[in-house]
Amino acid sequence: MRKIVLSLLAVLFVLTASAQKYPGLADTPPMGWNSWNIYACDITEQLVREVADAMVDRGLKEAGYEYVVIDDCWHGERDSLGFITDDQENFPSGIKALADYVHSLGLKFGIYSDAGWTTCGGRPGSRGYEYQDALKYAEWGVDYLKYDWCATDNVNAKGAYDTMLRALAKAGRPILFSMCEWGDNKPWLWAKDIGHMWRTTGDIYDDFYGEDDHGTWSSWGILNILDMQDGLREYAGPGHWNDPDMMEVGNHGLSVNESRAHFAMWCMIASPLIAGTDIQNASEETIEILTNEEAIAINQDLLGIQGFKHSKTDSLEVWYKPLAEGDWAVCFLNRDSISKEINYDWKATVVKDDFAKRNANFANTTYEIRDVWKHKNLGKTKRALKTTVPGHDVLMLHLSNIEK
Ligand code: GLA
Hints:
By secondary structure, the protein is α/β, with parallel strands linked by helices. Helix content is 26%, strand content 25%.
């Protein structure tokens, strides 16, 4: 009798236990490429293959970019059994063949769907088909799912994302789960155990500061999106990241300085580094920004602590990010279009990070200063730092604690 009761309890536990997201897939912010910013719905298998090749040839793979993600508009209709098919015109060899190709280059493959009836681009959504879709993705060899929020009517967000998580868990393949409900339902408060990352805002577009009004919704410039991250740092950490959207580095609306500032800030706030750039045709400067290994090391630091704004004087902000081994990243962000003189007295600066429980007291501790963009040492924090930051640009520093 005791055995029967125990077995029943075990069955009940399995049936009701909450699904687990796959561990170990996002211990540091995920890195990759996504098709949307640059190709929107004009995406084909040929383009994706070319991008994957370019990620290898132009050094992105070596720099740590791992996922090649097709965003909206790869879908065909559902078949008579309800399984999703691929768009035969733009993906004639099929998604599975494309995933195989991406894998053959040593990269991982990502795809996109939506918790509603349709995707934002009007293709079939996953609502009601979650388990079938997850099975298909696993069969195709998908490693990453971006899950959007269009056409969801009155669906409960936590329930919808939890359902897809359960479907992915059941399908049995490790798939990174990237939630994209634009921060509407404050996912940072409830999604830690559901998604590996969650969008915190509406869509980004390639303007340093601005709003692109589409009527019922708006896209936002780089600084606008940065400002919207205020107050969210305590919710991010290894395995669960705030996602301020895919990067616009090197895209038409941004100058080189602005692209550098954009990338630097996404590194400072431990954002996933998902490039939305035309990798094949990007300029050398753009590739240099995207593959700057010192900046990437700040983003990928193993503590996984999101940086914070420490101070602001006029349009010059100073951001700090605690790093492993007692180090710090510091970034001077010039929001103005004209250059700014800096005369920064470290010894008069106290950095008290209550969230990370870390302090930097420059009067007692000396750090070695490294300019992350110039790849040059700038001396120590014993003396004030005097330099200039160009308009819409950054000075990004790695401070090494030399007394450790
Ligand atoms: C939404 C998302 C974007 C992109 C498009 C695709 O707007 O926020 O990132 O995926 O849908 O239609």
